[in-house]
Amino acid sequence: MSVRRIALIAAIGGLLFGYDTGIIAGALLFAREDLSMGAFEQGLVVAMVPLGAAFGALLSGRFSNRYGRRSVVGAAAVAFLLGSLACAVAPSVAVLAAARFVLGIAVGFASASCPVYISEVAPPTQRGRLVSLFQLAVVVGILVAYLVALALEPSSDWRLMLGLGAVPALLLGLGMTRVPPSPRWLAMVGRDDEARGVMASLGMPQREVDEELEGIHANLRAEQGTFRDLLRQPARAALVVGIGLAVLQQVTGINTVIYFAPSIMEFAGVTSKSAAILSTVGVGLVNLAATIVAIRLVDRAGRRPLLIVGISGMVLALLALTAGFALDPDGKDGATAVVTVGALMAYVAAFAISLGPIFWLLNGEIYPLRERGAAAAAGTTANWASNFVVSLTFLPLIAALGTPGAFGLYAGVGVVALIFCITLVPETRGRTLQEIEQIWRRRAGMASEA
Ligand code: BGC
Asked: Does residue 292 have a pLDDT over 50?
């Protein structure tokens, strides 16, 4: 099987991550009526996926070292399948919330393990592009979820919307039984002969197989960092930036839009459910288009310019949303609805060229080699934990501060994110991982290593 096909199968994990986080936007409009949910219960059902994902990400590092990356992605597929089916038949809010928690664990496993698996089977020359496939799959999954919600809107069938996640879960599960284990993991657990066999089956010439295996063992000797080592320099300096970006990616409010877009449209005065869902499909399309632009630009323009331009755009769009909702709190004026939809699109586009892809990229490349595994898991967990807090508090925040107050708050946090990126995030474009490590050593006032 070609590396490309293997990466595509593993990227179905990204599709499920996107589908299961995106589908709740449409499903909620109907489920909340059927199960008579209040604001807190709606937030809970939404937020169970990020909460489960924080746990899943935390556990996945240990599991994927012990049982292998392929097994963890396979386990994620089973959890996706069971969670989707349980959501579809949930008789009460409590069961729905529990089923969404199971889905969350799957999302956490997938978001931490799929990119690692892909990067470990991919040859170095194709690695960047193939790992980006995972990110692209996430936004495609969100868009597919919005389209499914649009198609099922006339039947109000929120159970089918949630249950359909079982289809890609089945594909992922079946696909993972056909792909090989990661050769790097095989080498790590001392199964060198099998690792050789996998690399040869991926089309690698014998001489390169031996070199690669030697390189893997050299890397592994260096890469034995634990969670405790993260608090020592130079890892600490890198971790401040990684965790900072993980939290800021979420607390600037992206998932209030991704998860609640149709509800926000209703606040803006879009009264029909189908119009609200249709504008949400627009949000998904803009997200996909801007992500494609970002993937093309990130190695050319660099990470910092994209972050600075993108976050500035997010702040401006959030201020426009704040003003729109302040001027017309009840959404009586059609012009405000137009401003709201436009501002939402601009905000999502600005996120998708900056904090969206660049956090995941930096989370994979900025940590010193020794601590990379533990640090990336810590960053992923921080990201999902912040996502949980934002999803759970969004509707109560609107009840307490009003819609303009809530978006004004996210705009203020956006300014903090901008200052953080300008002052603390280094440019890593075109630098080797070794050079990136020297940046942290210099910042920590340590002598550089030859
Ligand atoms: C974020 C997700 C978000 C998605 C939207 C990702 O980078 O981590 O929380 O839902 O972007 O496209």
From this structure: yes
Concatenate the DSSP letters of all residues of 322-389 into one string.
HHHHHH-TT---HHHHHHHHHHHHHHHHHHHTTHHHHHHHHHHHSS-GGGHHHHHHHHHHHHHHHHHH
Look-up of token digits 């995941």 = 360
Burial class (CB in 10 A: 0-12, 13-18, 19+), 207: exposed
Question: Does the reported pTM lie above 0.90?
Answer: no
Of 261, 204, 214, 185, residue with least CA distance to 28: 261
| Cβ–ligand 1 contact at 391 (below 6 Å) | no
Q: Tell me 223's DSSP state.
A: -
Q: Which tens digits make up the pLDDT trace of 311-341?
A: 999 999 999 999 988 888 776 777 777 888 8
Is the C-beta atom of 258 inside 6 A of ligand 1?
Answer: yes
**Residue 254 beta carbon below 6 angstroms from any ligand 1 atom:** yes
Is the Cβ atom of 256 under 6 angstroms away from ligand 1?
Answer: no
For atom 12 of ligand 1, the residue with the nearest CA is 139
Q: Which of 141, 15, 51 is nearest to 387 (CA)?
A: 51
For the CA of 111, the nearest atom of ligand 1:
8
Angle formed at CA 255 by CA 278 and CA 166, multiple of 5 degrees: 70
Q: Give the position, in ligand 1's atom list, of the atom nearest the Cα of 142.
A: 12
Q: Is 381 a pocket residue for ligand 1 (Cβ < 6 Å)?
A: no
* Ligand 1 binding pocket includes 115 (Cβ within 6 Å): no
Mind listing the pLDDT tens digit for each residue in 343-356? 999 999 999 999 99
Nearest CA to ligand 1 atom 10: 255
